Amino acid sequence: MKALVVADEVEERLWTSAVHNHPADLVIGAGDLPYAYLEFLASALDVPCVFVPGNHDPDLSGYTRYGGLSMKDGFPAEWPGPAGGVNADGRIVDIGGLRFAGLGGSVRYNDGPNQWTQRQQARRARRLVRRARFRRWRDGRDVDVLLTHAPPRHCGDREDPPHRGFDCLHRTIELLRPKWLLHGHIHPHGEPVPDRVVGGTTVRNVVGHRIMELL
């Protein structure tokens, strides 16, 4: 399973036919990218797309599908996300032979969408763990990838309020034991960004793009 993993920074050369120089089986988005960009990448490569929203992305909460229609508050409404993309935020989803657990958004620093206090994200993380446990009880499969926008606290984050990581992700890693935690949000600005290992999980900053073998 080869994945094109993207976050935060649009790479113009990928938003052209040159994307075919990066063949992949799956597009993974870790937030703060135009949804049209994710849609283009998945369409051009003819592969599925799974993503979580970042703190600069539109609010996707409250949308459902019924009879092939996108609905919100019981009325037809155009979904602002990428066509065909799977929003993993707060969910356990199986895509391309991989099981993803998703937690989008960043630490709350203003009134924008997809921002959470430490306590709010901790509640969301506990719900996610319960869903993962139920799925594991049902089919015996574990989570392969924990897909987030912000990193765990003190694991490649920053000290300015908007770029602090989430404390709860350490406990989430401990309980889910994924092989990977993939995140964006922290721009390296040309500095090397080493992987970090938490328990048996490799934590990787995927700002820009990465080509990764995930299986």
UniProtKB/TrEMBL annotation:
Superkingdom of the source species: Bacteria
GO function term, MF aspect, one: hydrolase activity
Entry-linked InterPro entries: Calcineurin-like_PHP (IPR004843), Metallo-depent_PP-like (IPR029052)
Domain spans labelled Calcineurin-like phosphoesterase: 22-188
Protein name: Metallophosphoesterase
Organism lineage: Bacteria, Bacillati, Actinomycetota, Actinomycetes, Pseudonocardiales
